Amino acid sequence: MLVFPAMALAEIGCAQPASSDSGLAPDIVAAAQHPKGFPSFCSIPAIPTDVRDAGAWKTAVVDTRVAGARLQRQTDPSTWTLDGTDAFAADARREAAAPPPMTPASEGDAEAFTQQLKARATPPPRPR
Questions:
Q1: Is the confidence at residue 5, as pLDDT, over 70?
Q2: Is residue 124 classed as helix, strand or coil in its secondary structure?
Q3: Cα distance between residue 88 and residue 18, in whole Å
Q4: What does pTM read for this prediction?
Q5: Which of 99, 107, 117, 123 has its CA at a distance of 20 to 30 angstroms from the CA of residue 82?
């Protein structure tokens, strides 16, 4: 049965001291036998100085909202269309270079290609 440390400490109770044969880890027993003091008000950390104030936060939020509204206006459906795609395609076809014409392979080309493949497929010589 697994016993969690908090449950084990609750079973021991505050009035009973923890013993080393209770089955708890030694550091838990030591912490229960020697409790530490409570923190004081002096241990509260200082207020950070590198945090922006409320006015700076408001400015950043307003700037973000203005940028979002500007982007929304720039990308509204009425700001661009897909008209004129035929003219665009025709211009692209005129500017594109035609591929070279396909020619049938000759016997010599096929034989050279076959020899290259066989040379690549030959296993390397065995080490001695």
A1: no
A2: coil
A3: 84
A4: 0.33
A5: 99
H or E segment to which residue 70 belongs? helix 54-74
Look-up: residue for tokens 């665009």? 88
Write the Ramachandran bin of 66: left for phi over 0, alpha for psi from -120 to 50, otherwise beta. alpha
Query: Which amino acid is present at 5?
Result: P
- Structure tokens given for 53: 């104030």
Asked whether 31 and 8 are in contact (CB, 8 A), the reply is no
Name residues whose C-beta falls within 8 Å of residue 27's C-beta, 6 or more positions apart in sequence. Answer: none
Work out the number of other CB atoms within 10 angstroms of the CB of residue 32: 19
Give the residue with greater pLDDT, 1 vs 119. Answer: 119
Residue 59: strand, helix, or coil: helix
Q: Is 22 helix (H, G, I), strand (E, B) or coil?
A: coil
CB under 8 A, 24+ apart: contacts of 58-67: none
